[in-house]
Write a structure and sequence with these properties.
285 residues; alpha/beta; Spore Coat Polysaccharide Biosynthesis Protein SpsA, Chain A; 2 domains; eight-stranded mixed beta sheet; two-stranded antiparallel sheet; 46% helix; 19% strand; globular
Length: 285
């Protein structure tokens, strides 16, 4: 059994270097051979010099420049391992990360996908306004910051869907498709530390059209688009976004509450425009 560790990156050499340092054979407890693949989506291929000069044992590949889903698939194409371990370039892998996956694979015959724990580097910062981190302490999320998939299954489901152009919904999408092939086991001892970041409110607002498009790509794959579905989601979104606004406002998270207002008054109209337009176009065919 061989593990291939795939790290998509884009203009974050400082974080990437810290991640790779902890994946060196001297830092990991696993005795088996494994490979590390960095797939570089930066326009200037800035990770090439870092890998070439500092980490010659790591494979480097030029990314397709079409978003994180396509970049992960690009790394998977280079893999020679039986199992694909995906982590993000800003994660700090625990010394037992790969051994933890090896143990999980050996102890769960027939299971072809696993998700590892993701812990924040600052629990207190996570409580602050606009703080973000994909925390996974119990499973059921399948965040691509720390997952392991059998290579054969990954090919059978055609990997990550490259129609997702930004980091939103592509994890949930591949999770749904993998569950059609195998159950997924959560491994608490195969963990990474993920930085908590204060998100920019302006950037989050600017991303709303693309994130809404991503969500619609996901929605269309798993649910028939009918007027009744559109009406249901209109009321569901209205309720969820209003609840999010009030919840964050009561906690004193002003920026987060403003963001939920933008979701309420921007996401819903965008979704209605896209879905109704597509339904009307389909009905004319």
């Amino acid at each position: 059994m061989k593990l291939s560790v795939i790290i998509p990156t884009c203009n974050r050499n400082d974080l990437l270097g810290k991640c790779i340092d902890l994946l060196a054979p001297a830092k990991q407890t696993i005795a088996d051979k494994y490979e590390v693949i960095v797939t570089d989506d930066s326009r200037e291929n800035i990770a090439w010099d870092l890998i070439d000069k500092t980490y010659p044992w790591v494979k480097w590949a030029e990314g397709p420049k079409r978003g994180p889903a396509a970049n992960r698939n690009n790394g998977a194409k280079m893999a020679s391992g039986d199992w694909l371990v995906f982590i993000d370039d800003d994660c700090l892998p625990d010394k037992n990360l790969l051994q933890g996956y090896k143990n999980g694979i050996g102890q769960n015959a027939g299971v072809l996908a696993f998700e590892g724990a993701i812990l924040p580097d600052d629990w207190e910062l996570l409580k602050k306004d606009m703080s973000e981190c994909p925390v996974n302490t119990s499973g059921g999320y399948f965040w691509s910051a720390n997952i392991c998939i059998n290579g054969v299954v990954f090919k059978q489901i055609d990997g990550f869907d490259e129609d997702f152009l930004i980091a939103a919904q592509e994890d949930h999408d591949i999770y749904r498709r993998i569950l059609g092939k195998t159950k997924v086991i959560f491994l608490n001892d195969a963990f990474v530390i993920h930085p908590v970041r204060k998100a920019s409110l302006l950037k989050k607002i600017k991303e709303i059209p693309l994130s809404t498009r991503n969500w619609y790509v996901f929605e269309k794959k798993f649910h028939a688009q009918k007027i009744s579905r559109v009406v249901y989601l209109y009321f569901k979104f209205s309720f969820d976004f209003t609840k999010g606004f009030l919840k964050n406002l009561l906690k004193g998270k002003i920026k987060k509450s403003v963001y939920y207002l933008f979701l309420l008054f921007c996401t819903i109209p965008i979704y209605l425009l896209i879905s109704i337009k597509e339904i009307l176009w389909r009905d004319k065919q």
